[in-house]
Backbone:
């Protein structure tokens, strides 16, 4: 079963399985590695890095994605990047509820 599925109304869902590759507690960083699924049909590697920083009573998260295309004809993984942005906004909204 895929860990997540990023899709849009006009396109087929792209599935992916990922694992936590590393946790750096000192630098408050987690690296996720996609290793299987539709996403990997077009990419040699696909990783996401989350770095957390304390700010006041809360935290900030910097989320970056590092991927290597199989060739130059492969498009930017826009729907997966949009999916990640939506999930992070939903988490933020949930955490800020009174």
Residues:
């Amino acid at each position: 079963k895929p860990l997540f599925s990023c899709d849009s109304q006009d396109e087929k869902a792209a599935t992916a399985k990922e694992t936590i590759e590393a946790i750096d507690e000192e630098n408050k960083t987690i690296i996720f590695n996609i290793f299987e699924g539709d996403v990997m049909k077009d990419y040699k590697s696909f990783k996401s890095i989350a770095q957390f920083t304390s700010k006041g009573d809360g935290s900030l998260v910097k989320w970056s994605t590092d991927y290597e295309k199989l060739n130059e004809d492969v498009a930017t993984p826009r729907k997966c990047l949009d999916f990640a942005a939506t999930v992070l906004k939903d988490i933020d909204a949930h955490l800020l509820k009174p």
User: Anything to note?
Assistant: The CA atoms of residues 40 and 82 lie 17 Å apart. The first strand starts at residue 4 and ends at 8. The radius of gyration is 15 Å.
